[in-house]
Amino acid sequence: MAACHLKYPALSACASASVVIRVRAINDLTAFTEAMDSLSIYRGLWQLHIQKKIALFSMISDETHSSGAVVKVGNIHTVHLPDGSMTRSAHWHEDASNHEKPIEIKGFDVIEKKVGALIAKLNKATNQYHNFCGKALLSYVAAIDKVDQEARFVALWLCLELITGADDAKEIIRRTAFFFAEGDVAKAQLRSLRAARNSHVHAGVKPGGIDVKNFQMCVFVEALLGFIIINHFKFSKASEWRDFMSTATDLGTIDQQMARLRLVKRLVTLSATPA
C-alpha cells in the first residue's frame, strides 16, 4: 500500500498553502489519481462558497466575468510512501503551468467550516449517491480548471448533461430550469447557450462574449450542484433526483396528475378487495 502526499510550496516559500492527502493504493499512479480526485472534489466544494465577481473595467476582455477555478493546484506534486520516502514515480507535474500569484481568501475559516459540513453530509449518503455527487463535482472542476474559455464552455455544458442525466437538449434545459423560480427566463438563457455551444462544436464558430456565457453556465451548474449535494429530500439514487427534475411545475398539471393518481389508487384498491 502506498500513501500519496501531494505537496505544494510551503507558506514561507511563496505564501501558498501546502496540502497533504493520504490514500491507500496499490501503485503510484492509483495513489496520485485518487488523491487528485479527492483534492478536486474539495476544491469544487470551496468554489461553490466563493462569490463570483464581475469586473466590467478589466483590461483583459475574457475576464470581465470570472468563471475559472479560484483555488488552483500547484505545478508539481510528489508521491511518498508511509515512511516518508519518495516512490519510484515520485514527481508529477501539471500539463499547464500556474504562474499566478497566491490569492487571499476572506473568511477562510467560515468557508472551511461550511465545506466540512458538506463533506460530512456526503459521507452519510449512500455509496451510489456519494459517487453521483463526486462525479458531478469532478466534472465541474475539470471544466473550470480549463484555461481556454471555449473549452471551458463546452465542458460546463457536459457537466449539465451529467447532472441532469439527459443527452437531449430539450430535456437538459427543462430539468435545469426546474430549479429556478423564473423558469421561462432560465429556459431562454439555456436555449441561447445551447445554440452557441452547437455553433461552436459543429460549425467552429467562436461564441461571442464567451466570458459572459461561461459565467451564466456556472450559475446553472452551481445551482444544480448545490441542490444535489445538500439533498434536502434525502434521495439515495441519482435516478430519484432526475425523476424529481422531470416533474411538471405547472400547478394545474400537478393537480391533474394528483387526481389521476388518486383514481389509479382507488382502482387498485378495489381490484385488491375480495369479492
Q: How many structural domains?
A: 2
- Supply the number of helical segments: 10
What's the order of the H and E elements?
HHEEHHHHHHHH
Q: Which residue ranges are poorly predicted, with pLDDT under 50 across at least 5 consecutive positions?
A: 1-13
Strand content: under 5%
How would you describe the shape? globular
> How would you classify the helix and strand content by structural class?
mainly alpha
For the largest sheet, list the strands in their spatial order: 1-2
Oligomeric organization of the protein chains: single chain
Largest sheet: 2 strands, antiparallel
Radius of gyration: 22 Å
List the helices and strands and how they pair.
Blueprint: H1 11-14, H2 28-48, E1 76-80, E2 86-93, H3 108-124, H4 127-144, H5 149-164, H6 169-177, H7 183-203, H8 210-230, H9 238-245, H10 251-272
Helix pairs in contact: 2-4, 4-5, 4-8, 5-7, 5-8, 6-7
Please describe what this structure looks like:
By secondary structure, the chain is mostly helical. The protein has two domains: 124 residues, no CATH class; 151 residues, no CATH class. 57% of the residues lie in helices and 5% in strands. The chain contains ten helices and two strands; from the N terminus they run H-H-E-E-H-H-H-H-H-H-H-H. Strands 1-2 form a two-stranded antiparallel ribbon. Strand 1 and strand 2 form a beta hairpin. The radius of gyration is 22 Å and the shape is globular. The chain starts with 10 loop residues before the first helix and ends with a helix.
